[in-house]
């Protein structure tokens, strides 16, 4: 099934919730984020506590991951 949602539709999705992976990897979600928001700040959620208390950076695009790894 192809999901036509955009990255903006997914931005409130908690990537740390196990239930979004129970039926398989959410390829449509990550495809939309990778295309439109390859680097974004994941919001604070109850299931994950970031050390700085403000969520975490999700780096999803290959070029962006390469840059982060080099820096």
Walk me through this protein's architecture:
There is one protein chain. This protein has one domain. 32% of the residues lie in helices and 11% in strands. The longest helix is centred in the middle third of the chain and has 10 residues. The model has no long low-confidence stretch (mean pLDDT 84). A two-stranded antiparallel sheet has the order 1-2. By secondary structure, the chain is α+β, with helices and mostly antiparallel strands. The chain contains 3 helices and 2 strands; from the N terminus they run ααββα.
User: Which spans of ≥5 residues are poorly predicted at pLDDT below 50?
Assistant: none
Helix proportion: 25-40%
Number of strands: 2
Give the termini distance in whole angstroms.
Answer: 38 Å
Structurally, the number of domains stands at 1
Order of strands across the biggest sheet?
1-2
Structural class: alpha+beta
- Tell me the major beta sheet: 2 strands, antiparallel
- Give me the strand/helix succession: HHEEH
Mean pLDDT value:
84
Rg on CA atoms, Å: 13 Å
Q: Which helices and strands, and how do they pair?
A:
Elements (H helix, E strand, L loop, with lengths): L6 H4 L16 H10 L2 E4 L13 E4 L2 H9 L1
Antiparallel strand pairs: 1-2
């Amino acid at each position: 099934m192809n999901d036509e949602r955009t990255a903006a539709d997914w931005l409130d999705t908690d990537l740390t919730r196990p239930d979004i992976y129970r039926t398989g990897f959410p390829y449509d979600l990550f495809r939309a984020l990778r295309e439109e928001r390859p680097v974004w700040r994941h919001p604070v959620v109850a299931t994950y506590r970031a050390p700085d208390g403000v969520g975490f950076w999700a780096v999803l695009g290959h070029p962006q991951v390469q840059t982060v790894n080099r820096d």
